[in-house]
Amino acid sequence: MQHPLHTTKAPVRASTLTSPPSRAQASTPPVLQSTQLLGSQQAVDIEHLGQRYRLQATKAGKLILTK
C-alpha cells in the first residue's frame, strides 16, 4: 500500500513551470493614451474617492492634473 502523500507521477521539469511575476511587473500600471481620457476635449473631470479633479492638455502638449 502506498503512503497517501506519495505519488507515482513523473517529476515536473523546471522548464514547464512558470514563475510568478516580479514585484516590478506586478505593480506596473496599465498604459493609457491621453486621447483615451480626453477624446477631442482639452479637459475632463475625473472623480476619485468623492473628490473631483481636472485633467487638461495645454497648448504646449503637456498634461495638468488639478484638484
Automatic annotation (TrEMBL):
Region of interest (Disordered), residue spans: 1-34
InterPro entries per record: Hemin_uptake_protein_HemP
Polar residues bias locations: 15-34
Protein name (record): Hemin uptake protein HemP
Organism: Rhodoferax aquaticus
